[in-house]
């Protein structure tokens, strides 16, 4: 299957998960996220879930309860296709971006550089046995992680968040795709030590 075919199939698989299972999954992932974040230093970056993505609200609350300073992605206003990361607190006012995803209102004093982020929990549409990640197709996280892949951000630890149903044995990937070393699902903390395979 092509990447777009996989994307459609996995989105449908994710959308078919029942509401009770979604709620349970979000709480199961929250505990794993908080535990993992406390093993690293620096800010914890996490996304504000959208559409049928696994609900990250319980995970964010678990990070706050663990006294973890938290940031979330915001579309870069001057550099198309790139992200900034802004501090998130219980009092942060949110607004919807052009994709309909909530994000903090942009304030320069709340921007946190990648060099101060320890764990980066990121969304995905699918992942495979080699840590290859299939996103929504915009390339935002591939661009964000380019410096990490080049060895320039050794403290940064990219970690996917997904339902178990989003796993497949192998995805078709491109040269610019960035494989990630970890994925957290409701039932498992995946760790990938394989070199990515191109198909």
From TrEMBL:
Cofactor: Mg(2+)
EC number per UniProt: 6.3.3.2
Pfam families referenced in this protein's UniProt entry, alphabetically: 5-FTHF_cyc-lig
Keyword annotations: ATP-binding, Magnesium, Metal-binding, Nucleotide-binding
Catalytic activity: (6S)-5-formyl-5,6,7,8-tetrahydrofolate + ATP = (6R)-5,10-methenyltetrahydrofolate + ADP + phosphate
Cross-referenced Gene3D superfamilies: NagB/RpiA/CoA transferase-like (3.40.50.10420)
Highest taxon of source: Bacteria
Broad class of enzyme this protein falls into: ligase
Family named by the database record: Belongs to the 5-formyltetrahydrofolate cyclo-ligase family.
Family matches, as PANTHER family: 5-FORMYLTETRAHYDROFOLATE CYCLO-LIGASE (PTHR23407:SF1), ATPASE INHIBITOR/5-FORMYLTETRAHYDROFOLATE CYCLO-LIGASE (PTHR23407)
UniProt protein name: 5-formyltetrahydrofolate cyclo-ligase
